[in-house]
Specification:
Helix 4 runs parallel beside helix 5. The protein has 15 helices and 13 strands. The protein starts with 15 loop residues before the first helix and ends with a strand. It is α/β, with parallel strands linked by helices. The strands form two sheets. It has a seven-stranded parallel beta sheet, sandwiched between helices. Strands 8-13-12-9-11-10 form a six-stranded parallel beta sheet, with helices on both faces.
Length: 406
């Protein structure tokens, strides 16, 4: 168990009892309507694992090179400009099939490089035929923005236009942007459905569609929206499906989505080998916030992601930490898109030390140099745990993941 000593008593608060009363009322109202697995506790031993020793040595990840692919010279230049030389395993496996216009089912963990795996062939496809239109559907606003950013890097100077269609942003502006016939539309299911129903987004015009992080979209209740959007697409199309896992519900989507697909899979690992994982036991709930405080004041905790279960809980915790003098920001579903974007940018630029989030931020986000991930509320599934802690220990660096348990 993580060695935690109380060394700062000056910020104790007595609000723990009131918070517990509120939680008991909430749980009492909903207990009969919730599924057992929502409150089921994971075995704490799953959260304890030492990082493997990282030995610096050259390793040949791939025998391929981006310069080998039959893609446009402008695209090759942009790839090289942004420091890409050797494809990751998912890129090496998927790109040739995408360039051959095959339907692809790709399974890979977050951080495997799958965004570039589908963006590079898509940009080449559009560059060679400017009548092509591509729709990319993702579960969260943050992931949609990240894909748009990567698109702009790879398509720099190629005169290609992309439009972002997400909730929490001005719909009228998005409708105007769609009238300019962008090559790529990236969006979240709810907003795309609204635009389609308003006849501002004509899905029959899209010859290529990407469903990214499908398991996450299913987890947060978008399965019917996705099925509806698929029903509006042309029958003849190229369909690309990317997910960390393929469960029963994601298979329902697959049945009507892909045609004679190629399956591309990259070996999964349970959790990153270069992350020290441990638990923090808090037997008295009223001491939980103080325990978090005492961790965050330690010198090594300089860029920390804190995950909680509910929007309400994360917002309350953020305000409590700010009141204690910490530089903190939050992203969750009750924040406007502008607020979420500003919070994420401040964290990336080290203007705040702590970013607090619900699981909306646990997948697909690429944030450099996160030193620690703290699960203030334990995740409800091991899959969620893996995605949460995957925000640290990236690019060969060592990370730390700590999970609070009672």
């Amino acid at each position: 168990m993580y060695n935690h000593n109380r060394n700062n008593q000056s910020f104790r608060h007595s609000s723990g009892g009131r918070r517990n009363d509120s939680q008991r009322r909430f749980q009492g109202n909903h207990r009969n309507n919730q599924k057992r697995n929502e409150t089921k506790k994971l075995d704490a031993h799953l959260f304890v694992k030492k990082a493997a020793l990282i030995i610096e040595q050259p390793a040949v990840v791939s025998s391929a090179s981006f310069s080998d692919y039959a893609i446009s010279d402008a695209l090759k230049t942009n790839i090289a400009t942004h420091g890409y030389t050797t494809p990751t395993p998912i890129q090496e496996k998927a790109i040739p099939y995408l360039l051959a216009q095959r339907d692809v089912i790709g399974t890979a963990n977050t951080g495997a490089g799958k965004t570039a795996a589908f963006l590079i062939p898509i940009i080449d496809k559009i560059d060679k035929n400017r009548n092509q239109r591509v729709l990319i559907i993702v579960p969260t606003r943050e992931l949609a923005m990240q894909i748009i950013d990567e698109f702009h890097q790879f398509a720099q100077g190629m005169n290609l236009k992309a439009v972002l269609c997400i909730g929490g942003a001005n719909m009228q502006r998005q409708q105007i942007n769609l009238t300019q016939n962008p090559s790529i539309v990236v969006g979240t299911p709810g907003r795309l459905k609204d635009l389609a129903n308003r006849r501002k987004l004509h899905l029959m015009q899209f010859g290529t569609i990407v469903l990214d992080e499908v398991d996450r979209m299913v987890d947060i209740g978008f399965i019917k929206d996705i099925q509806y959007l698929i029903s509006l697409l042309p029958e003849i199309r190229q369909s690309l499906f990317f997910s960390a896992t393929v469960s029963g519900k994601t298979k329902e989507i697959l049945e009507n989505f892909v045609t004679n697909p190629v399956n591309v899979s990259v070996k999964h690992q349970e959790a990153a080998v270069n992350i020290d994982q441990d638990v923090i036991q808090v037997k008295n709930p009223s001491m939980k916030l103080d325990t978090l405080h005492d961790l965050l004041v330690k010198e090594e905790f300089n860029k920390v992601l804190v995950f909680g279960r509910t929007k309400w809980g994360i917002e309350k915790l953020t305000k409590a930490l700010i009141a204690r003098g910490f530089k903190a920001a939050a992203i969750h579903g009750n924040k406007s898109q502008g607020q979420r974007q500003r919070a994420l940018q401040m964290f990336k630029e080290n203007q705040v030390q702590i970013l607090l989030a619900t699981d909306v931020a646990s997948r697909g986000l690429d944030i450099d140099d996160v030193t620690h991930v703290i699960n203030y509320d334990a995740p409800t599934s091991y899959d969620d745990y893996v995605h949460r802690i995957g925000r640290t220990g990236r690019a060969g660096k060592k990370g730390v993941a700590l999970t609070f348990i009672d």
